[in-house]
Design brief:
Initiation_fac_2B_a/b/d, 2 domains, S-methyl-5-thioribose-1-phosphate isomerase activity, globular, isomerase, EC 5.3.1.23, single chain, Rossmann fold, 371 residues
Length: 371
Amino acid sequence: MKVHEQPTRTIWVEADGTSVGIIDQTRLPHAFVKVRLTTLEAVAHAIRSMQVRGAPLIGAAAAYGICLALRENASDEALARAHEVLLATRPTAINLRWALEEMRRTLQPLSPAGRLAEAYRRAAALCDEDVALNRSIGSHGVPLLEAAWARKGKQGRINVLTHCNAGWLATVDWGTALAPVYLAHDAGLPVHVWVDETRPRNQGASLTAWELGQHGVPHTVIADNVGGHLMQHGEVDLCIVGTDRTTARGDVANKIGTYLKALAAQDNGVPFYVALPSPTIDWTLEDGVRDIPIEQRDGTELTHISGRLASGEVVSVHVTAPGSPVANYGFDVTPARLVTGLITERGVCAASSEGLLSLFPERRTVRGTGT
């Protein structure tokens, strides 16, 4: 995708061939800042602090974190430590574990002397694979937008509601939920996105709105609780969200508030789709509500909000009653029964065990093994 008309990815190897560049997403939308990472600890901090965020991008960053760790020490012990440190940074996003397991599977059989070059090669391949997966998700999702427009007699605009940020900033490129939007827009379809602000970190208002604006996609930022009202009045043609972890039966964990959007969509007959690359599927879990660990984040994300003053200065202000305790749950789980369909790189399927296995039949022989 483009930033200021320049093709840009969210993560890359710098010109020195070893350090890793990222966009500091905590600075958006007020400043576009690139950060150079040179150590395992710097990558772990970038993931924990959400300088990089979004399940696919977290996985890509973790892969490069392994590379940076091996620059200092390529022993078995160092590889195991890097895996442990990075795995502990974010508990909900399954792509993190998947990417780390891919790196360990590739590197463990090699001698320490041969690990570093192969680590960089595999990390780069994971990034390229992510781009291809997301581009394919977009291709499979465009017909859903075309069908929504056809239902309207190809009049007016196609109104898509999304929650949080599942665009290219959450991946290496293209995005998951927004990949169909970008492709549809580029093909000339009149797509418009309702962008939930997504409290408490405001990833919708700050990140989704920013990247849609960079690409020229029409959009409108709304408060989190407006979605149901818009659905009641026929102003939402379909919802598309992302997911940080999807169970084998189609339950999806996404940013807190997604479940309420799905309930409103069902009550108003609005299709509710979830877009996901296959590494986001946790084939070892069935019941998402029971089994997916839900991250509880620092309470200051809820008690404080950042913004830009008229002077241009970016400040953080306290918005809650002094002394009030807070609970900051990062995600919720939407049961499969509320999901119209899952958009994957292999096509669209029902949110069910059989639906997923119809697209990934090779998983019939390995379900429950974690492989």
